[in-house]
Fold this sequence. Notes:
- The complex is a heterodimer.
- By secondary structure, chain A is an alpha+beta fold.
- Chain A has four domains: 8-169, MutS, DNA mismatch repair protein, domain I (3-Layer(aba) Sandwich); 242-326 and 360-380, CATH 3.30.1490.100; 384-430, no CATH class; 454-544, no CATH class.
- Chain A has helices at 16-24, 46-50, 59-65, 76-86, 119-134, 146-154, 164-169, 183-192, 198-203, 206-224, 254-274, 305-326, 390-404, 420-423; strands spanning 8-12, 33-37, 40-44, 70-73, 98-101, 104-108, 139-143, 242-251, 278-288, 293-299, 365-376, 409-411, 427-428, 454-464, 472-473, 476-477, 481-485, 491-497, 501-505, 514-523, 528-534, 537-544.
- The longest helix of chain A is centred in the middle third of the chain and has 22 residues, at 305-326.
Amino acid sequence: MSGEAQRTLVLTVPDWPAVAAAAEHEIGPGRPVAVLHGGKVIAANAPARASGVAVGNNKRAVGFRCPEARVVVWDEDVDNRHFSAGVGALEDLVARFTLLSPGTLAIPLDSLRHGYPDESSAVEALVSALVDETGWEFFPGIADTVFAAVLASGQARRVEPGRTVDFLAEQPITTLEYAGAGATALIEVFLQLGLRRLGDLARLEAKDVNSRFGAFGRHVHELASGVEGRPLADQVRGEPLDAELDLDAPTTRSDTLGFLARQLGAELLTKVRRQGMVCTQITIELDAAAGQSSSRTWRIEDMQENAIADRLRWQAEGWLAGASTGAGTGPTTGSGPRRGGTDPQALDFGDEPAPDAEDFSADGIIALRLIAAELTTPIGATKSLFEENTGQITHTLERLQGLFGPDAVLVPGIQGGWDPAETNLWTPWQQAAVPERSPGAPWPGALHAPRPTIVEHSAVDVLAADGSPVQARPSGLEAAPTTIRFPTGETAAITDYSGSWPIESGWWDPERTVYRTRLQVVTDAGRALLLSKERGQWYLTGRYR
Amino acid sequence: MSAAPVVEQLSRETGISTATALFDRIPPHPVNPVLSPLFRRGGLPRGELVTVTGELSVSCALATLAAATREQKWCAGIGLGEPAVSSIADLGVDLDHFVNLATPGEDWLRVASILIESFDIILVDPGFSPSASERARLLAKVRERRMSVIGLRPMPGSTEQIEITDTRWSGTERGRGRLQSCLVRARSQTGIHRFLLPGPTGTPVAVPAGTSEAPAAVSEAASEPTSAAGSEDPRWTTITHLRQVIDHVG
Lengths: 545, 250
């Protein structure tokens, strides 16, 4: 490790998505709130947790345990916007802080040394100022690395200088969740290898971890050992890497800002790349027409212009909304674009107050500035030599996503399940795959190769020779199937069929009970189909095409 | 007797110095050895459009491009609906180099024209037939980029056509077994071929010796490159001519 350890204070708002959702939907502080994402609770506030709602519950479980809870669907925009607006109070108190993720921010303790006699008084002053301003609960954590400080903030504790390695060593390995996307799979492997705590991982040779788990493995090993990838020293930068844009006319429209930010971001990233470096943190500065300004530093995992534009949009929306409500001008003057006098709607607001000096939200933003706040060498960020033209592929697929939406470009993956429709895991390009079922678990009765190539799901009728529907029993079919009728009305003669085999699972849990019978048939056209019968209805689930 | 004067004469007449100069284009993408006899040059040609039609055409096309994806070539599927990932993997396709486009069928030409910029292989079930000028532009771009397009419907302008004419599934045994494999009969420019697709493990397998259904007649048809199938291609007539000359010399 080169140079001094970078002692960091991390402030975390527990259950941030729930807090943000409550603010967004104007739910009172005492009411239980649960935030849902992908059908599962990802955050719940204290009243909800007190009545038994836990992370991972589904909506029905929440309704059962806490019927009065308000269930809200997670929205990344809401998370970011409220946080960015709320921490404005810090701007007067500290020189530099970084938003690590919504609900979590980091302050380098160097920047506090001049203002406060010691760490604890600094933390006390900052937390009380933030709580007064926002009404949120903040958990502070101090340690020698950002990662350790994030973990410490979860327990609201201060790690003594130099004791960070010991602190990390006793943390469970699952805390690597905070290391970023891709860690989940690694944690599972570590657990299987018998590594229960971060200390177990840190004791391994860095070389061995690198050769077994690659660059990401080395990264988590460094995190576990309390080593932090150093940002380059300031003097390495010959010139400040930034990009500025003065707007011709002030704007409050977030789509316009997003568009401009994308261009500006591309310009900045090109500059950074020309220096042979990559940017991991970015400072966004916004100037209002009336002279106010807003500055935030964001850490972005996958730095690219779209990510920058999103952050800029969130920052601008939060800032402008905060300014308009702070000035007490009421909702009619909101942050929306000011309409011309010809609009008949405007007549209704005849006594609309003129914006005072405090409220600059109506005029909007006149200048944008992006600064590369943290630079590192691109070793960790470059693609392998063995990958052919990955950059062009990325470019092409992103263009298609821009035209047809992110869900139009899908990459394949496999998860656990019995039928092809269940094992399919198509994930939009450049998003982390989230398997719902473990492929490692046993799936008794799963379909063997050859498997159908195309997944279908349509109700069909399977008829016996006398024209009656074929019934399935655990012992087999009641009659030989002779005809299949498709929803379009077409029929095909069945020339041969397989044995039917049932799947029975989850009988111990009424919510997960699966009982179905499957059958492969071959039609007179030489076409093979996979059928399954569930709750008295036959379905076409796969085609051998 | 040496063949040298004949070769010299040939090279003077047709402007071809060596046999490989007949195909002085880029080598084709490698394909599974079971499928390579289907192709004139033993592999998936680059810069050209190939069509695979009939039952099991998706399986056949995926099996064809599997070897290329394992050599880090990127492949995209358009208009396939929802393919089953497990069977794609069974056919040997490297999942890290396969992308499926869930775009509207009427946009396939636009999507393909964007993919051509960087992809090596496109597998497309076209939602509509392009006009002659659109097709010409597409083919020109494909030639220029030296990438392969596999169409799942008959398309004018294709250089090789593989048509699966007969499929015989085995293993079901009227309610007692399950699907094991499918004996496929395919017709291409190089003749008629028979193989198992999918085989017992999902990958294509050569027909085991001693299989019934008149294997003698079929193997004869397969070994004899039918002159009728490719007669309209000038290169093919040149090869036939060359072969006749060599037979004559021998």
